[in-house]
């Protein structure tokens, strides 16, 4: 019989590999896991929550019904602040970073509910997190991340993360309320047929991007898949291979996707799974951020596909 490994057991096993581990990281990740379970249960009741809201009913947590992304943000801020492991935390929903405890071991950046504009149409959305050692310097390049990951709230809820030695995926078993190891040591397959970009901006892209798109559409079996929820598009790319592109265009000359909250964590995952990420032909994890809300153009996915894209840059 296959052994069942919970996320908690997996993290503890990882921790035992580091002799001077203090359990601090395990505690931090457990708080993220708990937040993910609560957010997942709230998302399941979207729509119903509105009905409840109309009657002025309270939800099961006896809080006033509120917008899901505000709720997710507040929950993550509270749980992470209480973890005792956080120095500074920064949320895509907040204008500035919050100092929780100068002596906290880790700084954490998160997008509490990425793609939240898709909630009303039942499209998969996600929570993204990125963890650094707290050495007092908040804006460090993504290559300094200790860990990163995402939770995708889709047909099932999956927790996917890397600690710098591979990528592992865990599926929430709602029956027992635990994330179980379901995709050990994820490796992104070579891309063959799927490209993912918002073609609505075609006429606003740079000529190099347009030339790339014109060429790949002539390939055999090419398929376009674009959800408009980055966690969903990246998760599909990680599992099936392919390429995700959010290049700059005239309305967003510096790109749209956030460096600290989306690009760094997801590029770390893609790289650890054997894929590749580029931002203006550079590794985005080498970019030293100038500001918290910095945006950048981003292309990531199967190495062979990204290398093909680079021929057009
Ligand atoms: P567009 C969601 O708001 C998000 O930040 C990403 O999750 C997603 O990939 C992107 O924006 C979609 O942007 O311009 O295609 O609607």
Description:
The chain is an alpha+beta fold. The chain folds into 2 domains: 177 residues, Fructose-1,6-Bisphosphatase, subunit A, domain 1 (Fructose-1,6-Bisphosphatase, Chain A, domain 1, 2-Layer Sandwich); 117 residues, D-Maltodextrin-Binding Protein, domain 2 (3-Layer(aba) Sandwich), CATH 3.40.190. 30% of the residues lie in helices and 24% in strands. The protein is built from 8 helices and 15 strands. Strands 2-1-3-4-5-6-7-8 form an 8-stranded mixed beta sheet, sandwiched between helices. The chain has a 5-stranded mixed beta sheet with strand order 10-9-11-15-13. Strand 9, helix 5 and strand 10 form a beta-alpha-beta unit. Helix 2 packs antiparallel against helix 4. The longest helix is centred in the first third of the chain and has 21 residues. About 4% of the residues have low confidence. Bound molecules: 6-O-phosphono-alpha-D-fructofuranose. 6-O-phosphono-alpha-D-fructofuranose binds next to helix 6.
Descriptive keywords:
313 residues, D-Maltodextrin-Binding Protein, domain 2, 15 strands, eight-stranded mixed sheet, binds 6-O-phosphono-alpha-D-fructofuranose, 30% helix, five-stranded mixed sheet, globular, alpha+beta, Fructose-1,6-Bisphosphatase, Chain A, domain 1
